[in-house]
Amino acid sequence: MRLVLFGATGFAGGRIMREATARGHEVVPVARNVGSLPGARAGSLHDEAFVLDVTSGADVIAVAIPGRPMEDGRKLLDAVPGLFAAASKHGARIGVVGGAGSLRVSEDGPRLIDTPEFPAEFKDEAGSHAEVLEAFRRAPAEIDWFYLSPAAVFGSYAPGERTGRYRTGGDVLLTDEEGVSAIGGDDYAIAFVDEVESAAHSRSRFTVAY
């Protein structure tokens, strides 16, 4: 399959690129600053003409971009209409590296972001990504997409080790027997590429954790 990957130089994006490439998929890495990344395209997700051009021929448009405002003040949410236009024109599926903050702590409980324990320094990012999820849930019916929320502990501060295993859930945060919600970067990437290949979660959000 051909993946066009926005945010290829980031924590999640880089791992998804390596996982997909190792499985024989064609990956077009995209970032604002690509450096010497082979075959990469430099550009912004907020440039709709660029997005339409770079996603031509894509089977999947993968988005591994932070939700919070960037240096120019624009958020990932602002790029969603352009993503929809590109997906519609090219017949591509959209896959989003999502956030954990919009997950509920139990079936009838609050969202993780709304709990007193949620770190204040992560609220801007989590809230912005929750808006992106809601925008995808309102996507035109012809657009297929998936939004993969990681566990609560996920990121460069806790990269973890590759195990090749994970559990999946829906809109409720997954925890282990000790109450810990975590997923390593490589195992998240495995889950993401598994979804690219299986399309098991059409037009929906799901989550992964150990």
TrEMBL record:
Superkingdom of the organism of origin: Bacteria
Pfam family, one: NAD_binding_10
UniProt xrefs under InterPro entries: NAD(P)-bd_dom (IPR016040), NAD(P)-bd_dom_sf (IPR036291), Polyketide_Oxido-like (IPR051606)
NAD(P)-binding domain segment(s): 7-153
Classification via SUPFAM superfamilies: NAD(P)-binding Rossmann-fold domains
Protein name: NAD(P)H-binding protein
